[in-house]
Amino acid sequence: MVDFQLDEMQAMLKELAHEFAQDEIRPKAEHWDETAHYPKETIQAAHEMGLLNLHIPEAYGGAGLGSFEEVLVNEELAWGDPGFATAAYATALASAPIITGATDEQKEHWLRKIAEEGALASYAVTEPGAGSDVAACKTTAIRDGDEYVINGSKMWITGAGHADFFFVLAKTDPDAGYRGMSGFVVEKDTAGFSLGKKETNMGQRCSDTRSISFDDVRVPADHLIGGSESGGWMNAMKAFDMSRPNIAAHATGLARAAYEHALQYANERQTFGKPLHQHQAIQFMLADMKTNIEASRMLTWKSAAEFDAGVRNTESAAHAKRFSADMAMQVATDAVQIYGGYGYSEEYPVARLMRGAKVMQIYEGSSQVQRMIIGREITKGL
Predict the structure, then answer these.
(1) Which long-range contacts (CB under 8 A, 24 or more apart) does 312-315 make?
(2) What is d(CA 35, CA 202) in angstroms, rounded to the nearest whole number?
(3) Is 244 exposed, middle or buried (0-12, 13-18, 19+ CB in 10 A)?
(4) pLDDT mean values, one per 10 residues, the chain (382 residues)
(5) Known catalytic membership, residue 76
(6) What is the rounded CA–CA span in Å between residue 192 and residue 212?
(7) How far apart are CA 7 and CA 330, in angstroms?
(8) From CA 212, how far away is CA 282, in angstroms rounded?
């Protein structure tokens, strides 16, 4: 029989994350949203409590835990505030290609910076003309002696304004398509590297999002991930097998928060002489919200468990990410509906959650791209 019970360590970790979200994130979330304040100090506090980057191996100073433990934590952090969860997770995504593709020396240097020094990192793949179509990437890295010279730009880079270094995907052979792409680590103070303005986003406003540019940026050859050209695209895509279950966990946490707010409001609000929740129309909405949250969590747990077991989880990660993102948008929208006119007011948290949910259907591969992945996986060999 499959055991759905958390072990003692997992339960304690989940509770620790929940308490942190309750005490350190929720009281500040509205202010962060209103001011677009990047919560660096709270991210650092989460790091010091051992809630971030749990996947980094013990050999490089990390906790050496699995994706399953990370999704438990990330659901709670997003329950606190989805923007915070996104901002805090950016470093984990950037570290994934290093874990999967870097040399031992590179892992020792860069992963230890994250695990022991609390360094922040960003994943720089998307470009103004290359989102889901990664092959359309125009950023180049040309070998020049013991260095590579990088030119180009990236767009919608989460955490860019505060990152200490970046995982950057660039073409080392512009004529070789995916096979001509390589991954590099670029430090923030490198000459020729520049940041764009902070974008004003619909939701998750505390998560710093910017463009970045490379103008003859020179990096040492030993910043080439893995020490050899090509393979960058594969490492970049493998990162999503780890990250998508965590984004699904973010969506689950956001939806849970919206549902809980709606349930509380439906108990307090009186209409036609009785509490709102006693109307069958509202009960059905609440029931669907709860069912979908439970289903989302199970898809997320399954995909994370497969990743930890070394099972190829590309399809299950796409299922989890697609379903959870769409579910979060629907649940947040229904929460606003249950609040009625009050839900449309920014004075109540469900409006912020609804705005925050939308981007989950877009980043880390849109819901349409996830369907493409699923379709490709299920029709293999036909």
Answers:
(1) 312/241, 313/241, 313/245, 314/241, 314/373, 314/377, 315/373, 315/374, 315/377, 315/378
(2) 13
(3) buried
(4) 86 98 98 98 98 96 97 99 98 97 97 97 93 85 98 98 98 90 97 97 97 98 94 91 98 99 97 94 98 99 97 98 99 98 96 98 96 97 88
(5) no
(6) 11
(7) 32
(8) 46
Domain 234-378 = CATH 1.20.140.10: yes
Catalytic residue among 199, 315, 364, 377: 364
Q: What are the boundaries of each domain within the chain?
A: 8-117, 121-233, 234-378
How far is it, in rounded angstroms, from Cα 58 to Cα 112? 10
* Amino acid 1: pLDDT: 54
For 199, how many CA atoms within 13 A lie in the half-sphere containing its CB? 16
- 153: β partners: 213
Which CATH code, of 1.10.540.10, 1.10.3660.10, 3.40.50.2000, 3.40.50.300, is assigned to 8-117?
1.10.540.10
